[in-house]
């Protein structure tokens, strides 16, 4: 209790007084959703004239580069300032070489968005899982993922996105040492001013299910538990965060967000760099599915879920609901 709070309690103190009108409630709100702090994830697919609805993510599509303006316009109108790009290549192989193809969907999308919306911040996710035939995030040797052999491939992909004009490089693979490897490659390529947002604290989560359908990146064998974090662990998150900052990360991310609000709050208290939180596909899909069944009010529930993520301490939230939330708060 603050020293200014009278000790007498009820009936002198009635917290309900400040909840009486909606204007009053708005003015005392401690947390607001600012569309400038939202980032919209987008799936970019090879080919032309493709707008493929993603069944597991109602309202979301896979977009070919030539159709991107259909989604970039509403993003701009909503006041949302950033998009995170995920690529779905025409073909996949053992090493995920499509990830560093300068003609792949992501580098082409970066250039296209730069042309139609030069002020939008374009975040490029860096991982191999959308590009490997086995669906794993790195080079597979036997049944394991070879951490150190994967690093140069991630760095190569990051350099291609940087050359294409990305504004933020966001590695999501969870290999040890990837921030340092990417920083070195960016600097060597003259991109010393390009920031890295590391998916530092990424848990091995069942909530990624719909994303793997959207990106066709479900692992062909095994799972991601040898590199993504165990949901049971809290202190370990700080090891990841400190490691990534030491390697040069400019921002750190916690993912998923909703089931990990304690981690978002811990990271916020511990570091001074911007903290990003990702409301992942399963969090979004669960709310959408319940709303579609009439079990809850989808708009209010989504606002509440994202408000909770900001309240826990996130500075920036990635959410598939960015455009709908951004539009509703600016209107
Ligand atoms: C990896 C990546 C994943 C997500 C973002 N980047 C999938 C995974 O690790 O399996 C999940 C995002 C979501 O579920 O919305 N490239």
Written description of the protein model:
The strands form two sheets. Strands 1, 2, 3, 4, 5, 8, 9, 10, 11 and 12 form a ten-stranded mixed β-sheet that branches. Strands 6-7 form a two-stranded antiparallel sheet. The model has no long low-confidence stretch (mean pLDDT 95). The chain has helices spanning 22-27, 69-78, 105-116, 147-164, 178-188, 209-215, 236-246, 261-270, 281-292, 298-312, 322-330; strands spanning 38-45, 51-53, 61-64, 82-88, 121-126, 139-141, 144-146, 168-171, 197-202, 251-255, 275-279, 316-319. The protein contains eleven helices and twelve strands. The chain has 331 residues and is of the alpha/beta class. The protein has a single domain (32-330), classed as Alpha-Beta Barrel (TIM Barrel), CATH 3.20.20.70. The two termini are 37 Å apart. Bound molecules: ligand PBG. Ligand PBG binds next to helix 6.
Keywords:
TIM Barrel, two-stranded antiparallel ribbon, single chain, 12 strands, ten-stranded mixed β-sheet, 18% strand, alpha/beta, binds ligand PBG, 11 helices
